[in-house]
Amino acid sequence: MAKSKTLYVCQQCGASYPKWSGKCENCEEWNSLVEQASEVTGKSAVSRSSGNQLKAQSIGSINADDSKSRISTGINDLNDVLGGGILQGGVVLLAGQPGIGKSTLLLQVVSEIASKHAVLYVSGEESAGQVKQRALRLGGSQGDDLHFAASTSADDIAATIRSGKYKLVVVDSIQTLTLGEIASAPGSVSQITNSSNVIIQAAKASKTAVVMVGHVTKEGSIAGPKVLEHLVDVVLQFEGDRYGGFKVVRAIKNRFGSTSEAAIFEMNERGLAIVENPSAALLAERQNADGSVVLATMEGSKPLLVEIQGLVNTTNFGYPKRTASGFDLNRLNLLIAVLERRTKLNLSDKDIYINVVGGLKLDDPAADLAVCMAIASAAAGRRLDDGMVVFGEVGLGGEIRSASSSNKRIDEAKKLGFTKAIAPASGGQAKKSPFITGVRDLRQALVDYLQK
Fold first, then answer.
1. What 8-state DSSP symbol labels residue 181?
2. Is 77 helix (H, G, I), strand (E, B) or coil?
C-alpha cells in the first residue's frame, strides 16, 4: 500500500534526509534543510525500472556540421568569452550580483541578434512595460523579430522552445521558474533542478540556443544547487562593483571554448560598452606617490596594466588590521609574513590596506611582487621610479618566480610609454630584453628599486 513520505532537502547541495537537522552532513551548510511537500511512494524505483537497448553509432559517422554554426552577440569580446558566439542548442548560465547589469547586457545582445534571427525574451521578474522602457533607454531593436513574454512556468517556456520558432531564448531568471508537478516554492533545489532539466531538454531537441540568468548568494557564488552548473554548457560570471568601475564577464565553465578569456565593460547612459583600452583608463588618474605600484597582469588572454595602492599606518589597537579590496585577504596575510621574515620590515604593529584600482579582482599569482612592493613603499615612505611596471610571483622563501605570458605584459607596458619592468630573473626574458630588470628575491627588489 502506498504511503506518504516527508523529506528535508538541502537548498545548497540537494541532499535529502528523513528528518530535520541544523547542519547538512553532505555540504556542511547550516540551516539549509527545507521540508518538501509529502509525496506518495509505492514500489521502489528499482522494481519499476525498465528500458530498451541503446542504438549506438561510431564517432566517425556522426555529422558535426551543426555544432559549427554560432550566433554572434554583436560584441567581439563577448564572442571570445563564449568561444566564438552562442552555439545553437547550447545553454548558457549568466550569474552576477543584483544590479550589476545582467538584464541590461542581455537586452543589448538580443536587440543585436534580433536583426538577423527570431529571439524571445522571457521574464519572470519584470512586466512588459518595464522591459520596453529599458529597451527604449538602451536604443534597442524595435523590430518584429524581438518578442517578449512574461511567465514563470517552466512547462510553458519549454513548450515554446520546443516549437522551434526562435533561434535564441533568454530566461530571466531561472530562480523564478516553477513546474506544476512540484509543490515546493520557486528558487528551491527541486524547482531549479527540474525546471532547468526541462528547458535544457527542449533546447537540445529543437537546437535552440538558451541563455538563463542566475542569482548569486551573499558569498558571491551562484545560488541554487551545484548541479545547475553541471547541467548547462557555459557558465558566465559577471563581476565588478555595481556602483561604478569596470565590470568583467568571464567564463568559469565552457564546453565549447576556453575559460581564459574575459570581456571588460563599463556602464554609461546607453548601457554597457566595451572598454577599448582599459589599461589607459585605469592609469589616467594615477599619481606616483609612495604605495603606488603599476602591475602588468593578465585578464584572461589580454594584458592589462592596473594600479596597486598600499597604505601602511601604525595601529591604535593591539591587533593590527589587514584589509584588501580586489585581492585575496589570505594571500595578503601570507605576503606580509614573507616580508617580515625575509626582509627587515617590521609590520607587526601596522595596519595594512591594499586596493586594486578600478574595482577589478585579481587572481593572477604574478600580482604578488607588486603587492609586496606597494606595502614596502608605503611603509618606508619611498616610491618607485616613473615609467616602471612590476610583475612576479613571490615564494615563501622570498624568491621571485617566473610569470606566464611575459611577452604580452611587456608589450602592453611599452604601448603606454613605460620604460622598465621589474620581473623575475628566472623567466628567461630578462637576459634577452633590456626593458626587463630581473630580480631573484624580494629583498633585492626592495633595496634596489625603492627610491627616496
1. T
2. helix
Contact of 155 with 105, CB cutoff 8 Å = no
Please write the tens of the pLDDT for every residue from 360-404: 889 899 999 999 999 999 999 998 888 899 999 999 999 999 998
pLDDT tens-digit series, residues 290-319: 999 999 999 878 899 999 999 999 998 889
pTM: 0.80
Long-range contacts formed by 239-242: CB under 8 A, 24+ apart = 239/96, 239/100, 239/361, 240/100, 240/265, 240/359, 240/360, 241/359, 242/97, 242/98, 242/99, 242/100, 242/101
Closest of 76, 70, 77 to residue 249, by C-alpha: 77
Strands 3-5 and 39-41 come out as antiparallel
User: In angstroms, rounded to a whole number, what is the distance separating the alpha carbons of residues 34 and 87?
Assistant: 37
All residues at 6 or more sequence positions from 427 whose CB lies less than 8 Å from its CB, including other chains: 402, 403, 406, 436, 438
Q: How many residues does the chain have?
A: 452
User: Do the Cβ atoms of 437 and 420 come closer than 8 Å?
Assistant: yes
Is 3 a residue whose pLDDT tops 70? Answer: no
